[in-house]
Queue: 2 jobs
Job 1
Amino acid sequence: MRQQNKVLFYELVRRHIRELLPIIYTPTEGDAIAAYSHRFRKPEGCFLDITDPDSIDERLSKFGEAKDIDYVVVSDGEGILGIGDQGMGGIRISIAKAALMTLCGGLHPGRVIAVGLDTGTNNKNLLNDPLYMGNKFPRVRGEEYDIFMEKFITSLTKRFPHAVLHFEDFGVINGRPVLEKYRKVLPCFNDDIQGTGAVVMASMTAALKITKRELLDSQVVIYGAGSAGLGIADQIVNHMVTKGATKEEARAKIHCMDRRGLILDDMHDKSTPAQQSYADSAAEWEGIDTRSLVDVIEKVKPTVLVGCSTQAGAFTEEVIKTMYKHNPRPIIFPLSNPTRLHECVPEDALKWTDFNALVATGSPFKPVEGHVISENNNCFTFPGIGLGAVLSRATVISDTMISAAVDQLAAGSPGIADYKKGLLAPLEVIDETSAQVATAVILQALKEGVAKVEEEESPAGGKVSVPRDFDGCMKWVKEQMWKPVYRPMIKVEHVDSIHTHQY
Ligand SMILES: NC(=O)c1ccc[n+]([C@@H]2O[C@H](COP(=O)([O-])OP(=O)(O)OC[C@H]3O[C@@H](n4cnc5c(N)ncnc54)[C@H](O)[C@@H]3O)[C@@H](O)[C@H]2O)c1
Ligand SMILES: O=C(O)C[C@H](O)C(=O)O
Ligand SMILES: [Mg+2]
């Protein structure tokens, strides 16, 4: 339906979002990605092939000219959700996130491109599968990968100079270095690092308000120190710094674990630089089993436990009860997707804490005895961040723009009035939530002088003047958002007169 009738598709999903989002997005998308080559019917999105880097420009050119594209989602398929390397099938995550940019972020569906980079795969099942449609060789690393990425970015910025770039589900090897390099070059963000960091910081802020605690009194254990885990750690540090902590003080309140256990400062040769910046002192942990989550919790006495480890069931009864022993209101976020990979299910976390835990999950879950379980998913942040960057014509997406998104999302938490209502606004109003987040991002970009929207001629002609007050700006944002409504059929020469928004 999405391919044949976009108005019908987006209006249907909007009206039945709770029922249909899990089908077009998490968790079902995981199955669709894994089965990509077997279910393939017709191509969708832009396929870029590392064996043919010279074709990048021509392949992108099929999607339009400079004025036509606002937003590009790209994945190389190496770190799809918690199901790992899915090779070329990863293009479907770009398609799903691009669809959410329209559904939740109000971008015109024709102005968003989903891109898949085929740089090989290390997934043995795919390499041995005669139906696998991608390149059948191990992932290309190092210089050849870097040159391919550079060519992609160069072509993209030349051909679509106004486009915002969204990186999705890159593996831990490339995700952060690629982001660090290119965020200085074009407006871009990595959803798993920054989008996830933002949504978790927002729900944590709401949970702290509900329980009347201060952010700086938090101790956080992050179980799974990959893209998401370290993105969450960074966002918490950014927020602690805005509350007066130094970077070092803030980092000392965060304890990260990966498959080797707690990250310690004597593991530097095997940790990434980002992991190392959160390392605990090995000397202080001597004699303690740092591979045991329970033992780590016993020593740290965390107020917050975040799971992004892909390890189903890792938050056992003993883990949760140890959290509860040290905290009357523990904050517990099992975030690994898809659903079957959650570190625990909300029902258990609530029962094991006599319903005192504040729980939000990565995938959708039904309410437990009247307690709404918010979906702590980056779908609450990336559409608003992306829309804000597009509408403001931001030249960069700064940390402070992301922090503005966090504060705005947290302010809309229904849990602050009644904690049983969940930490994040309900899915039914996600387009409204995204408009609020976009407004906060735009106002911040204008304040920082990185918004070019008022300097350029608008596509509808004339200069735009963006209201500086929140309500006025939000009204302007909503006017720009694409709505799934059938438009009248008219003669081409009258098109200008029915433009209701700027596209
Ligand atoms: N809710 C959301 O919005 C959201 C956003 C991003 C990622 N995620 C989920 O988080 C999970 C991780 O995603 P990612 O992109 O960070 O992946 P990643 O591969 O970058 O990181 C996974 C991390 O888990 C660690 N790990 C593996 N086994 C472990 C174990 N036994 N104990 C402790 N740590 C272990 C790995 O060492 C690695 O550091 C996925 O399931 C993904 O779906 C959720
Ligand atoms: O895709 C999602 O549901 C969220 C997130 O980006 C993930 O990788 O799990
Ligand atoms: Mg992702």
Job 2
Amino acid sequence: MRTSIATVCLSGTLEEKLHACAQAGFDGVEIFEQDLLVSPHSPAEIRALAAELGLSLDLYQPFRDFEGVDEELLADNLYRAEAKFRLMRELGMDLMLLCSNVGTATIDDDETAAAQLRTLGDLAARYGIRIAYEALAWGKFVNDFEHACRLVELADHPNVGTCLDSFHILSRGWDPAGIEKIPAEKIFFVQLADAPQLSMDILSWSRHYRVFPGEGAWELDKFLGHLVRSGYTGPVSLEIFNDVFRQADEVRTAVDAMRSLIWLAERTWVHLQQTDGPDAHYPMELATLPQVPEPTGFNFAEVKAESTKKLQTLLGQLGFACRGRHRTKPVQLWTQGRARIIINGQQARNQEPAIAALGFDVADPVRAASRAMQLKAAPVPRQSQADEEVLQAVSAPDTTEVFLCQGTPDGTAAWTREFGRPADAAAPAGRELISHVDHVNLAQPWQHFDESVLFYESTLALSPSPSTEVPSPVGLVRSQVMRTRDGAVRLALNIAPLVMEKPGPSSESAYPQHIAFACTDVIALARDAVGRGLEFLKIPANYYADLQARFRLAPELLATLQELNLLYDRDQHGEFLHFYTATVGSVFFEVVERRNGYDGYGAPNAPVRLAAQYLLTKQG
Ligand SMILES: O=C(O)c1ccc(O)c(O)c1
Ligand SMILES: [Mg+2]
């Protein structure tokens, strides 16, 4: 599959955009006219730069409002077109995108429009140029890809074909299966975009909210499957109008874009294997990736900190014990049940405690790392001694280090052997009620949220749950859970509100993130923790009054919840009881008890938690 991307997807100058596309590994680009118009470089210089970078210039776009007009306007439009053909010759380009007329068309007649396309084809042919006609979803008379194809067929000119754009097809709810009926040689170009399911006018949706494949709501693997079956072999290009990508770092966006195409090609290959059988062959080649199953659990979570005292105290109060110190590094291992927390003091000068790494249990770490690398994940450089476990790790978009660890049937981890028992090893403070890490909640930089979702889905095989929004005193927090089907791994990604503008310590400290532990008896554990002096996040009385109104809890239970600062929720399966600790640095802990298969995260309680934490930061 030849890959391409429209320059409109990226921030920066045309020169910067071309460099980013080449760096990310694209075969070619679509030149967006606006990017060229504002460039100080001549068309010849842009052509030379693209050649030097090994990028083909696949499509010049857009040319607008051409067909369905009267004779006088047609003459003007042909004059405009010829100027662009001359420009394209300087660029060394031979394919121009023509959008269906959205403004100036006055004649709603297929024969007329097709004849005008034929005239344009004649003119284009003199310059060795071909025209790819695209139905915009909001076109005046042509807004449906099959209608555009009928006009192309009627025009019956070798230099006139169609451009398919998934946005215009899927946003209108047209059935993409119709793509298979289009003669492959008439599909001159293909653009892909995904989008979140929104209810708004289509033009605004298209111009502001498109995202890369895998970051929205559409089944683009099926869309691409229809295209592959049509016999098309040309470039598959990304055309994403997105307000965030326009401001984000262009190199990162280009890598995110490339990852989406690599992943989509694989998904499409899997889809076609399943529907057409393993012996089916198509002219377009789809590269595949090493297949990996979902991870089976969290292997560890690592917190980096210069001063580890407060963390140690907190973990001890939760019933964790220090199981050892690393033989050669200032690193401690704290465990309870299968929950492992590494406290890492390496290269942590002046660092307040923060979650730095997560380990996932996978079936085959080398294979999983190879997949991640093929998906353009950046490897984490590591120095290990000869007798140490070689661990595979890649960097997530929010810079969390993702370790791919060997899963074992009994949940043990071989690397723990490197931790000798410390001289001051404490016996666990009491009974072990925590069994494992239930979920981890990571704050995402606002401009990398979609990238993070795609990263965890494509590299780790986690699936996105429907996203939610949680009100907090400093903004609305968008939350997206990525999880395995069995819930063994649950990762909640939150977009922190843009800036904490209110004065106070919160504006300096990183947005808090947390690790939630699963426990079999949260009331007992909370009582133990109270006895050990744990500082709980204080929950206001108003919350408990509302709880009573919503759930009619037994008075004794309600009193216990309130006494212990426990929160409560219920779903169609069962009940959820949980509490939060105070925050150290940017880290806090949660302990949860899921009763009878409760499957959520206490979403109605999240605003209460955020408000309580906000109050604490105000008090300093
Ligand atoms: O929004 C637009 O005008 C526009 C322009 C060119 C395209 O290829 C497209 O899909 C939309
Ligand atoms: Mg388009």
